[in-house]
């Protein structure tokens, strides 16, 4: 059993490749995305490319990765500030309820504070009830509705 005290958060490292990939495949499976190792490899390349905007924190328990958070900085013209956008947050099923998600959010909040960022923002699926319970306790739900426009649709 994993406890909150046994979870630590750090930047992802090159040696994390296989465990990170396992977690990321779990994330993609949770959201019913088609299995695609080329996407897993591409995102890993982005995370490890200093010129790419995508970064990652991982949660560890002992020598095992139990969670991940992919994030990037984004400009906010409406406020003239820069925020941190959380793209993906995932906790291994064996570690759910042990504070992994909260610890990852806490690290993102601390990063935003250290860097003088204006917000940490993310979206989640409406039916992701377990995650939303955590999010409702740690953040403020906004009035904004999200839309996706397909390239070339208009």
UniProtKB/TrEMBL annotation:
<dbReference type="InterPro" id="IPR000182">
    <property type="entry name" value="GNAT_dom"/>
</dbReference>
<protein>
    <submittedName>
        <fullName>GNAT family N-acetyltransferase</fullName>
    </submittedName>
</protein>
<dbReference type="GO" id="GO:0008080">
    <property type="term" value="F:N-acetyltransferase activity"/>
</dbReference>
<dbReference type="Pfam" id="PF00583">
    <property type="entry name" value="Acetyltransf_1"/>
</dbReference>
<dbReference type="InterPro" id="IPR016181">
    <property type="entry name" value="Acyl_CoA_acyltransferase"/>
</dbReference>
<dbReference type="InterPro" id="IPR051016">
    <property type="entry name" value="Diverse_Substrate_AcTransf"/>
</dbReference>
<keyword id="KW-0808">Transferase</keyword>
<keyword id="KW-0012">Acyltransferase</keyword>
<feature type="domain" description="N-acetyltransferase">
    <location>
        <begin position="7"/>
        <end position="154"/>
    </location>
</feature>
């Amino acid at each position: 059993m994993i406890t909150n005290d046994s979870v630590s958060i750090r930047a992802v490292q090159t040696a994390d490749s296989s465990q990170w990939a396992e977690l990321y495949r779990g994330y993609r499976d949770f959201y019913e995305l088609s299995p695609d190792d080329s996407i897993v490899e591409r995102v890993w390349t982005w995370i490890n490319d200093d010129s790419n905007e995508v970064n990652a924190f991982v949660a560890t328990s002992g020598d095992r990765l139990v969670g991940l958070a992919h994030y990037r900085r984004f400009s906010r013209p409406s406020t003239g500030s820069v925020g941190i956008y959380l793209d993906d947050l995932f906790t291994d099923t064996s570690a759910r309820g042990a504070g992994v998600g909260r610890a990852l959010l806490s690290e993102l909040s601390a990063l935003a504070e250290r860097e003088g960022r204006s917000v940490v923002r993310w979206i989640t699926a409406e039916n992701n009830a377990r995650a939303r319970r955590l999010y409702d306790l740690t953040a403020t739900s906004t009035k904004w509705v999200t839309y996706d426009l397909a390239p070339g649709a208009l």
